[in-house]
TrEMBL record:
Any GO molecular function: 5-amino-6-(5-phosphoribosylamino)uracil reductase activity
An example Gene Ontology biological process: riboflavin biosynthetic process
Species this protein is from: uncultured Rubrobacteraceae bacterium
Protein name per the record: Bacterial bifunctional deaminase-reductase C-terminal domain-containing protein
SUPFAM superfamilies given in the database record: Dihydrofolate reductase-like
Signal peptide: none
Lineage: Bacteria, Bacillati, Actinomycetota, Rubrobacteria, Rubrobacterales
Domain of life (superkingdom): Bacteria
Keywords of this entry: NADP, Oxidoreductase
Residue span(s) of domain Bacterial bifunctional deaminase-reductase C-terminal: 21-223
Pfam families cross-referenced by the UniProt entry: RibD_C
């Protein structure tokens, strides 16, 4: 049985070999598949999960979340030690406010807000703004949100313009689903916390009737403090 910070301590993620960064998702869920309590993911995982999460962050160049995850609670996308090089914090918006200064805890960390062209969000001066083309599959940008952003364009520019070779995505479920459905994710890290929530909260992917099943390959499994830490590789689609 390992401590949380030891689980991925010797992890070495590959560098990108194409136009996109090497993309990994890290999520925590209850045994019955819930990812939040009262809308907050922090109600699921324990100390060991938080330790493993920060270890994963130390292995990447940037950490990305969707706007809904930011709005739900006050959080950090960085490392505990301010003396360490902090990953770029990325918030992917669509429509509505981005409370970066209110909800995002940063220490010596650069923040990038990615918005669809024509978005009217007010973004605090502490964040750089990157305007991205809208998803060509949602004409007019759709109702707003993650689906209205061209994620392939975003990933290409993160690698080319921001030197992001390895990208960690920490949700939420809508962003996860969009990335997986477009075959943009290389690995999934999933922590199963020893709790039941029975709250009807979203799973790690938001529902989509048209979603094509994806098969995974288990790369490692660890336990710590009754938590189960799973690492999967995304199998190529046919």
């Amino acid at each position: 049985m390992a401590e949380g910070k030891e689980i991925y301590g010797d992890l070495e993620l590959p560098h990108s070999s194409g136009d996109f960064p090497y993309v990994v998702i890290n999520m925590v869920s209850s045994v019955d598949g819930g990812t939040s309590v009262s809308g907050k993911a922090s109600g699921i995982g324990g100390r060991v999960d938080r330790e493993s999460m920060r270890t994963l962050r130390s292995k990447v160049d940037a950490v990305m979340i969707g706007a809904g995850t930011l709005r739900a609670e006050r959080l950090s996308l960085g490392l505990d030690d301010p003396a360490l090089t902090q990953p770029l914090a990325i918030v992917l918006g669509g429509q509505g406010e981005l409370p970066i200064e209110e909800h995002l805890i940063t220490t010596n960390q650069k923040v990038l807000a990615v918005l669809p062209d024509g978005a009217v969000e007010q973004v605090e001066r502490s964040a750089e703004v990157l305007y991205a083309p809208r998803n060509p599959e949602t004409p007019g940008g759709g109702p707003g949100g993650i689906a209205s952003v061209d994620l392939q364009w975003v990933l290409k520019h993160l690698r080319a313009d921001y030197s992001v070779e390895r990208l960690l995505v920490e949700g939420g479920p809508s962003l996860n689903r969009q990335l997986v459905s477009q075959n943009l994710v290389d690995e999934l890290f999933l922590t199963v916390a020893p709790v039941l929530v029975a709250a009807g909260s979203p799973s790690i992917l938001s529902p989509d009737p048209g979603f094509t099943r994806r098969d995974l390959m288990l790369k490692s499994a660890h336990t710590a403090d009754d938590h189960l830490f799973l690492r999967y590789h995304m199998r190529a689609t046919a």
